[in-house]
Amino acid sequence: MNEHLFSYSWNMSDGYPAKGIEKHGLKVFGAFICGGGSTMGYKLAGYNHLGGVEIDKRLAEAYNINHNPKYLYSEDIRDFVKRNDLSDELYNLDILDGSPPCSTFSMTGKREKDWGKEKIFAEGQKKQRLDDLFFEFVKLTDKLKPKVFIAENVEGLIIENARIYVNEILNQSSAAGYNVQLFLLNSATMGVPQKRKRVFFIGVRKELSKQPLKLNFNEKPILFKEIHDSADISISNITDIDKKYWSLAKQGKPVGKFKSVKKLNYNDVCFTIAASKRHFNPLIMRGLNDVEILKCSSFPLDYNPLKINVNYLCGMSVPPVMMAQISNQIYLQWLKQ
What we know:
Elements: E1 27-31, H1 37-44, E2 48-53, H2 57-67, E3 71-73, H3 77-80, E4 95-98, E5 119-120, E6 127-128, H4 133-144, E7 148-154, H5 163-175, E8 178-186, E9 197-205, H6 224-227, H7 240-248, E10 254-255, E11 258-262, H8 290-296, H9 310-315, H10 320-335
Parallel strand pairs: 1-2, 1-4, 2-3, 4-7
Antiparallel strand pairs: 5-6, 7-9, 8-9, 10-11
Helix pairs in contact: 1-10
């Protein structure tokens, strides 16, 4: 018997939605869609995901290959929100989804030092501000007027000085006509083999008069030993310092001086998969291989990353099963007729 509503080990070739889930076909459009982690989550939960906006052309290409969207815009959301040529279909959405770039709010980043500054960030390879992109998403929500919006970000957004952004996001969303709830969720409780805490802003149009959404997930944790791939790889590309740190590091502990890089614990859930960091396999002298990263991220095993590093792609994305769980509850509690 499957203990999880959505399986973390799956293939796109199996088709959508997930087994046992109703294909209701409610419409979703996304911003900051990356490689499509959220997109696949909505599809697993029975939605019709129409496509979205992605500034990074490499990620947009991977998105196009894997999802064949009806609409795909490879451009800055600042330009997209000014468009006056959008299909009427996009003004009749059930859900608008978005994951504004989060590196400026990450507790491992520079935080306040990057707020208000234009820099060339990994997100989009363009000189731009990142800390104001959430407000562009709110503008898009106000423009398209979906029934519901969902916006995802890092836990650091609700910590310390960053809360000034939260207050402004809530104020602007309310002015646009939405009642908004804030959730801090951990993917490890949702059937994802990864400890990934993320903040979700979930808003519903005020005139729909919905009761507050309840999100309580308590699925059995999936330990690394359940997704471990015993296939070895050559260690010729591992540096001497990597070999030293792997040998000295204890399972579940940081590797050397790099506190965010750890040797995983075989009998625990995987740490957060981050785009710019890698973790060490606890049994084999190597980092995680692609199969392990895909499973930890609940990405399909037949996903085609093109030439993009799988660790980067999954680290930038919402785990599909995480979004499947959330969107399924929104359907059941708010949108089911």
